[in-house]
Amino acid sequence: MQKVIIDTDPGLGIREADFDDGVALLLALKSPQIDVIGITTVHGNVPVSYGTRNVLRLLHLMQRNVKVAQGAHRPIILDYPGKVKRPDREIEGIFQFIPSMEDNLISTFAPQFIVDTANKSEDKIIIVGIGPLTNIALSLIINPGIKEKIEKIIIMGGAAFYPGNVTPVAEFNIWMDPEAAEVVFSSGLPIVMVGLNVTQKVGFTKKDFSLLKNKIDPLSKLFYLSAVTWLDYLKKMQNTRECYIHDALAVGYLLDEKLISTRQAYVSIETKGALTRGQTVIDTQGISGKRPNAQVCMEIDKKRFREMVIDCLEKL
């Protein structure tokens, strides 16, 4: 069984925050294929303290005992570029009767937790990074030796030959801390990059979540209300009736590599460009003269991924 640490910034249950991290955690925690040995939280969709609370509440509802370590509250070098909206309002009534599992929260700083857990593990671990890469980068800076204990890092971030979702060229997770992303992509570790070019090929609508509408258990209500609230926000702001569950696809790849085809490439992160900061620059032709440092996801089995998500929701 694969031992996995998930590094995340979940907005589950928060207004105007994406809930895709929540679906990713649900897929991972429900799967018999992997052993989630820790969840670390990072700044991103919401302030890190909110993300930590959301994880603890989700664990309570799922009755899972997994260690949670809170991590970085800001990028490693520069503060947020421009004005970053940080939603912090809970969906009304959604957590009213849901306590968190405070016993799961440990005092260790998330990057140190990653170092300690990797060093103590008899087996190599897999890290799934579905938020800004600050915690993961700091763990590699604190102790570069942990690279020997990491099998690979699966990252939801970037975009391969595809527009960004926060600037014309940058994806949110990478844009939030491009210096951290550069540390990770330069680490020499095996990396799988699950970018917008695949995550935005499968849209979900309110109809997809209607199977949860009449369920009375708190876990189903949490996901249903989070989904419809996010979709209402997207309809208002972007005039779209569908959403993308970006982060869940990174876990989906972990569970079933046949979901996505990949291509070896050298990926560099733009950290200085006034217009291109946070862009993932993909070299599949060897033009840079550098050896590939990542498996870049290129095509997705849309039907297979949709069935994976719907099946997981049906079993709540």
From TrEMBL:
Q: Which InterPro entries match?
A: Inosine/uridine_hydrolase_dom, IUNH, Ribo_hydro-like
* Keyword terms of this UniProt record: Glycosidase, Hydrolase
A single GO cellular-component term on record: cytosol
Annotated Inosine/uridine-preferring nucleoside hydrolase domain residues: 4-307
Q: Which Pfam families match?
A: IU_nuc_hydro
**Where is coiled-coil annotated?**
none
Q: Does the keyword Hydrolase apply?
A: yes
The organism's lineage is:
Bacteria, Candidatus Aerophobota
Q: Care to name a GO molecular-function term for this sequence?
A: purine nucleosidase activity
Q: What is the name listed in the Swiss-Prot or TrEMBL entry for this protein? A: Nucleoside hydrolase
Q: Give the source's domain of life in one word.
A: Bacteria
GO biological process terms held by the UniProt record: purine nucleoside catabolic process
